[in-house]
């Protein structure tokens, strides 16, 4: 069928695949580096900004905004995407029409670390 299968996840996903020798032989792990405050990260933010259907320019590459997004996300692409998507929706809903620090600070977002803490509290 020539179908490419890609699995993505955290270390637990890698461990799950390695519990089965057949799966472990079929998938070669590749670790994605975390985003850092560099030209590639700013290019990523600029690409998101061009996708937003907002009336005002968001200026995601302003240093303070970029640092805030990076610190909230832990540097993972999925979290960066989630933060920016939630912020864009909120900007539209509130009529703010741009993603800036004030909008980012108002989104309903729980960081991966805090989600883990919430999960652990549920187990107690």
Task: List the main descriptive attributes of the protein structure presented here.
mainly alpha; Helicase, Ruva Protein, domain 3; globular; TniB protein; TniB
Task: Give an overview of the whole structure.
- The protein is mainly alpha-helical.
- The chain has a domain at 39-123: Helicase, Ruva Protein, domain 3, CATH 1.10.8.
- It contains 7 helices and no strands.
- The chain has helices spanning 11-18, 21-26, 39-51, 63-73, 77-94, 101-104, 112-123.
- Helix 4 (63-73) packs across helix 5 (77-94).
- The longest helix is centred in the C-terminal third of the chain and has 18 residues, at 77-94.
- The chain is globular and about 55 Å long.
- It comes from Mucilaginibacter pineti.
- This is TniB protein.
Summarize the structure.
It contains 7 helices and no strands. Helix content is 58%, strand content 0%. The chain has a domain at 39-123: Helicase, Ruva Protein, domain 3 (Orthogonal Bundle).
